[in-house]
Amino acid sequence: MNIPLNPDSFYHLYNRANGNEQLFISDENYHYFLKRYKQLICSVADTYAYCLMPNHFHFLVKIKSRKTLRELSEFQNDKDIPQLISKRFSNLFSSYAQSYNKQQGRMGSLFMRGFKRKQVKTEAYFRKLVLYIHFNPIVHGYCSSLNEWKFCSYKAILSKQKTIIKRKETIAYFDDLENFKFCHLNPPKKMD
Known about the structure:
Blueprint: E1 10-16, H1 27-40, E2 45-53, E3 56-63, H2 66-70, H3 81-104, E4 116-120, H4 123-139, H5 153-158, H6 167-172, H7 177-185
Antiparallel strand pairs: 1-3, 1-4, 2-3
Helix pairs in contact: 1-3
């Protein structure tokens, strides 16, 4: 049983494709997933880091406050909030899978059943998780530099362009931009 997604709490959310399947095979797939993420998730969760890779993804999010969620029509009953937030994520994965299946002429489940989540309870774990998420493409051999992977929040945090990432807030966990960069140049030896 997955833990509930409660208001004002941070979570590491992740999932992978079934078996040896791919979730994303073209830039168009990545862009569509992020577009649907923005449409379905940004009103219920703030995003601090993410990385999409061919067969899996990671997000570091903070579920919005009860007060903010109550402003959305479907979140009027407090006891239903965790289930409704999970439903939003399920709708994201379902709508993406349907589009992907249609595009690829495939049938069946694309994602492993039930997305995974871990609550982030300390600042130290938050910082470690940001590094873990950003270094995932290097660890899995998709690139050799943080700047090479397009579908990761690292470059968005460094840029001045509009983004779904809570840039200032993420940097604040590292004290300032210089330390954020330093930590990414000198990651901990053990990333898991």
